[in-house]
Design brief:
Length: about 375
């Protein structure tokens, strides 16, 4: 379809300090606007607002905090949200929430609006990380996913790993659309010797973890890896960038074990985070249910290799630029040693080359294709 479309997007569990989802929403919105479409994003917040931004119109509705999530809010009040959607009259609906907003697929079907749900996480994976037995988690996920596949025109999955739980139930409306990385702002040139001296001192290895500090991200694995490395005589330190409900507990663990860990909290500013990633020797991504892993891809763009959970989708994204580890500290430590055994100039060049496969224009075009919308750019037509 070549005419401009009004694409209304709904997202929960996104805050001013949340990472991957907020980044993806911004880049996708900017891409939709660049393609000539109208983008409207609706998110929850502490207070209401309505403003025009680089990613189009952003409407913030007051939403309650979700206990135990470290600041996440959700859109509530279905009648209010239905009224807003009716007033916006979308041509397309894009929903980034697998649970509380699933009813919007039914709303869109009644109004003959094509709607897509974006799978940013694995339902059964998240349920398992919160302690639900595997069989029970899979059964619950299958029930939820069947309803989602029925109510939405398409399910957008960023990786084959993310699509697997829909393929398991025989869903036929699943499409693949990768996310991307900002190759200009995430760059090896941001390597900062002064930053390294501040956090590593004279330590041999500087490891960084950029992650939300919540149970499904398994941030404790990074501390376990550091402890194991130091027990083996490896002079390593760890810097943690991110907030979340587990921060206080992790800081206590580090103090008790006398581990050299710096907790920075939320790092604001793209350049500051890029400098941290570019300066590290290796970045750790221990989350076992990551369906894409934007933070890990940003690290690669900064020229830094990544060790990720073998249970997640990241090993396929990382390719030769990273290493996969089973879900325990010693395995992560061994993977770090394996990566760092390569000459530095080679491992950094391979990391950057892998990231360059994932530019945002390609990702935006794939998402627009899922909407049957005109792309940001079209291949040249030759005669």
């Amino acid at each position: 379809m070549n005419r401009p479309l009004r694409i209304v997007r709904l997202a929960n569990f996104v805050t001013p300090t949340s990472g991957g989802l907020r980044t993806a929403l911004r880049h996708l919105g900017e891409g939709y606007v660049a393609a000539g479409h109208e983008s409207v994003l609706i998110v929850p917040g502490a207070t209401g607002s309505d403003e025009m931004t680089s990613q189009g119109r952003v409407i913030t509705l007051p939403g309650p905090l979700v206990a135990g999530t470290g600041g996440y809010r959700v859109l509530t009040g279905r009648p209010r949200l239905e009224q807003l959607l009716d007033s916006l009259r979308p041509d397309r609906l894009e929903v980034s929430d697998r649970t509380t907003l699933r009813w919007t697929g039914e709303w869109a079907r009644r109004r003959r609006v094509r709607a897509v749900m974006v799978s940013h996480e694995s339902v059964d994976g998240v349920l398992r990380t919160w302690g639900m037995p595997s069989a029970m988690a899979q059964n619950a996920a299958d029930r939820i996913n069947r309803r989602s596949a029925h109510h939405y025109s398409r399910i957008v999955c960023t990786t084959g790993w993310a699509a697997a739980e829909f393929e398991r139930i025989g869903a036929r409306n699943v499409v693949r659309a990768p996310l991307g990385v900002d190759l200009e702002n995430c760059h090896p040139s941001h390597h900062d010797p002064e930053l390294r001296a501040r956090y590593a001192g004279g330590a041999e290895i500087l490891m960084v973890m950029c992650s939300r500090l919540s149970p499904e991200k398994r941030p404790g694995r990074a501390l376990e890896a550091l402890a194991y490395m130091r027990s083996q005589g490896v002079d390593a330190v760890l810097v943690v960038a991110g907030e979340g409900p587990m921060r206080e507990r992790l800081e206590a663990r580090a103090r008790e074990a006398r581990l050299p860990v710096s907790f920075l909290g939320h790092v604001s500013g793209r350049h500051s985070l890029s400098a941290l990633q570019a300066t590290a020797d290796v970045v750790l991504a221990p989350g076992p249910v990551e369906t894409f892993g934007l933070s890990a891809l940003e690290a690669l763009a900064c020229g830094t290799p990544v060790v990720a959970s073998a249970l997640s989708a990241l090993p396929d994204i990382l390719g030769p630029a990273g290493a996969a580890a089973t879900d325990d500290g010693p395995a992560f430590a061994d993977a770090v040693s394996h990566l760092l055994s390569r000459p530095e100039h080679i491992r950094r060049a391979v990391a950057r080359a892998q990231a360059e496969r994932y530019g945002w224009p390609i990702a935006v075009n794939a998402f627009l294709a899922a909407h049957d919308a005109a792309p940001v750019y079209s291949p040249e037509v030759t005669t």
